[in-house]
Amino acid sequence: MKKINGYVSLVLHAHLPFVHHPESEDYLEEQWLFEAISETYIPLLINFKKLEDEKVDFRVTMSITPPLLSMLDNKLLQERYIKYLKKHIELCEKELVRTKNDARLNSLSQYYFDRYSNDLHIFKDVYNCNIIQGFKHFQDIGVLEIITCGATHGFFPILFINENTVKAQIAVGVQTYEKYFGRKPRGIWLPECGYVPEADKYLKEFGIEYVITETHGILYANPTPIYGTCSPIVSPNGIVAFGRDLESSRQVWSSINGYPGDYNYREFYRDIGYDVDYDYIKPYIASNGARVPTGIKYYRITGKDCPKDYYNPRWALDSVEKQAGHFFDSRQSQINDIAPYMDKPPIILCPYDAELYGHWWYEGPLWLYTLFKKIYYDKCNFALITPGEYIDKYPEMQESTPCRSSWGANGYSGVWLNETNDYVHRHLHKAGDRMVELAHLFPNEQDSLKRFALNQCARELLLAQSSDWLFIITNGTMVDYAKKRIKEHIGRFTKLYYSIKNNQIDKEFVQNINNMDPIFPEIDYMIFY
């Protein structure tokens, strides 16, 4: 029996904005989902299953956001993902021919052919096109704690100007979770880790027990927490807050010495979509002819003074094992240093974007598998735990109000409110006020068409509020698409608003945009009341 001096809690935030374009297959943004399924979600499920089959007891927490759940459950997107896989398998078959005279390259072509073929088998045959059930299984057997998020990842520190819009984000987030997992969520990953005290009462109203926050949200809480981020705090409204541990985060995230930068790992940016003959690759890139990544990447990361070399999965495995050992040893040392000064075992909270594991850091899911096995089998002074389990074990904690905060550059909302995107917020706030106005003008509306239009208004507002569009504009990537989405959702909302107030609802228009934006089919606009 291990002597437990502390706990480690890994939390993965699985999120993508809702992207659904039935009108065209030419939107590359839909591939965000397909890449994440193949590179992150299926690999995580594969490694969780291996641990289950090997009877390795492990613990991990995942937030699976409502937009992501809605896309994973969307029949059109499921069909398009299968088409995406078949096209990749076809390309891999051609690569096997093209690379036949280079044994190392040919073995990698075979590797990708096997990988995409297995993705198709797992998606269609194992999960019947519904990988949500895969994650639900691991929650049901007690090794995975799934938590929720805001309905569309709306950013609370700015939306709270009209608190009803924050209330709606929380309400729909909880309702969507219950729909897919058959229980209430205990925790929430605050969108962009954005904390404001004004949200607490709504979190409490909808049964949320705990939140995941950024480090300084805890360190600068009032009064100052005695144990920093090594223990959760509880707000005056009864919401428990866990803060990100800096040391463990730096070991994974750091661009200078973080694990994903190991020279044995697969290079993210080098892709055959850019490398091979244009006429050869043209059927597999963007419909407008632009070169884009295919996901088939043959090179490993190499040092500044070394020429690029082919990726070698065995060498990558060596680095995985070495770095899992380093993380393991580091947490032991960290807990040894902290535990003597605490009156209960510390918790080291390690929150990451789920897509780091597999998409950005190709070997990430294998690293988790290796780490979990090492923690289970090797002698160590800590155990894995979920935030919910920690609360159950140690319900007494210091009362303190977390600091208004977010993650992202500089830590105080600057990514989502700056000179590149500040014009958006006047429209979001105006639409939020108008949605609350509609809910009060037409409480519990009985006319079916008007109710249909009111519910679609709620959907359009929530979709416009997605923090992803603001993030994309700030970062300067896919900016035109992000601006287009904001403009479309606000435009649709505004047209519906006036048509409802003037009693001139165009049924065909409402039906058309409902087909475009079919998220949250059970929504009730009265959440904005």
Description:
The protein is an alpha/beta fold and 529 residues long. It has 2 domains: 6-71 and 130-261 and 313-410, Alpha-Beta Barrel (7-stranded beta/alpha barrel), CATH 3.20.110.10; 418-528, immunoglobulin/albumin-binding domain-like, CATH 1.20.1430.10. The chain is built from 20 helices and 9 strands. It has helices spanning 31-53, 66-72, 75-98, 103-126, 132-140, 156-159, 163-181, 200-205, 215-219, 246-253, 272-275, 278-281, 313-338, 364-377, 387-393, 423-441, 448-464, 467-475, 479-501, 507-516, and strands spanning 6-14, 60-64, 144-149, 187-189, 210-213, 233-234, 240-243, 347-353, 382-384. Strands 1, 2, 3, 4, 5, 6, 7, 8 and 9 form a 9-stranded mixed sheet that branches. Helix 3 packs antiparallel against helix 4. It is globular. The N and C termini lie far apart (54 Å). The mean pLDDT is 96.
What would the CATH topology of the largest domain be? 7-stranded beta/alpha barrel
User: What's the rounded overall pLDDT mean?
Assistant: 96
Please tell me what the overall shape is: globular
Low-confidence stretches: none
Q: Estimate nothing, just give the exact number of structural domains.
A: 2
Q: Identify the quaternary structure here.
A: single chain
Q: Assign the CATH superfamily of the largest domain.
A: Glycoside hydrolase 38, N terminal domain
